[in-house]
């Protein structure tokens, strides 16, 4: 899609506080000057918006505007209003409001887009163009809804062109290892009763043995990453409000994958007596009644740990000499509705991570990413001894927010670590490391005292994924585990016996 080829057309009107017939000549002169200056300001020569038709009917000025993408018709309408307000003020006439009769956009596209878009009342595809008819009012124009509609459609068209493979590039691959297991690790864990399904979807209860393995991972991370790289522990909230996700960018598309949080409309016991009584009589929880007694979602369960951290820095200006700052959170589970299907302990709805976050100037954040990569390589090669590979991934949010150039330079973007899974002859992403650029500092309005740009990175260490990757290659026989890791695990506890 070529932005330069976009066309906008709008028919609208200004509702006046009085009869402006005596000001008609002045209005005509203003529109001529606007076409030559106000409506082309900021656009290349020969580009911008133009009023192609207008008329005055006592207390209504009707205008027809066409434009390219440089000064879009809705922006031209607001510019024109400002100029008219000054002119009509001299005649003691005000502008009471703006009305939109017709608003159309032509967007070049190689293929149609069959989607329902907010505020679009008609969408057609003709002769290599998507033709939109918008249903917007003055407030939506002021809130830049038309621009966001255009961006949304561009995003949807581009996302159909490129799948994950186009955003995935192999960086490095370890040597092949001798795999001591070709079994699905979750099935083996269940046979030994090291794990059992929890009551919830995609939820597991980890017995003493598997919990000890997780704790060994944690101790290694403490020794190899957290202490050497100077991380400090924090506790991030695990219930995340909409405001956080709006600022972090997740609100653009998180909805199919979050667990929503809805508070009760009131704590008044009498209000809930119907529910309580129903359960006492039927021994069934009356979900339909409860649904009517809870309020709208205020947010959701933790989906990604780091966004809620940024509220701690939100709106602050910080001195340069405290950076880089490295913090981490391991205080509780995250929840994600795995719409693609759950499988074993590696694809779950409830999972446990150690989230690393580092903040600083651009060069500090990029340098820390390199140090962290070195630490991971040592850990995966020398301690866990697993077969894995590293891939460069360009997340969609970077393309959406104009960061693709930096991503190509391999500064802003994500490295995925993928472990070979012998039982299915495939790879599992078990670790990631992201440099997010200025995304979070900008979103949460965090500034450096010097005025330089603030950057950040994050890396989520998922215990379930680590466990699945390690056990898929090494099996459950502790004697066959790498010596360094076996020593760290120690004796696995035998607590439960089942008859």
Structural overview:
With 499 residues, the chain is of the alpha+beta class. It is built from 15 helices and 22 strands. The chain has helices at residues 24-36, 73-89, 138-142, 145-161, 185-191, 208-226, 242-248, 269-282, 287-293, 362-383, 396-400, 404-408, 439-443, 463-474, 483-489; strands spanning 7-16, 49-57, 60-67, 95-108, 120-126, 129-134, 168-173, 195-197, 204-206, 232-233, 239-241, 260-261, 299-301, 317-318, 325-329, 333-335, 350-361, 388-393, 413-421, 426-437, 447-448, 454-462. Strands 7, 10, 15, 16, 17, 18, 19, 20 and 22 form a nine-stranded mixed sheet that branches. A six-stranded antiparallel sheet has the order 2-3-1-4-6-5, with helices on one face. Strand 19 (413-421) and strand 20 form a beta hairpin. Helix 1 (24-36) crosses helix 2 and helix 6 crosses helix 14 (463-474). The model is unreliable at 399-408 (pLDDT under 50).
Q: What is the overall number of helices?
A: 15
What is the 3D form?
Answer: elongated
Estimate the helix proportion, in percent. Answer: 25-40%
- Structural class of the helix and strand makeup? alpha+beta
Question: How would you summarize what this structure contains?
Answer:
32% of the residues lie in helices and 27% in strands.
List keywords for this structure.
499 residues, alpha+beta, nine-stranded mixed β-sheet, six-stranded antiparallel β-sheet, 22 strands, 32% helix
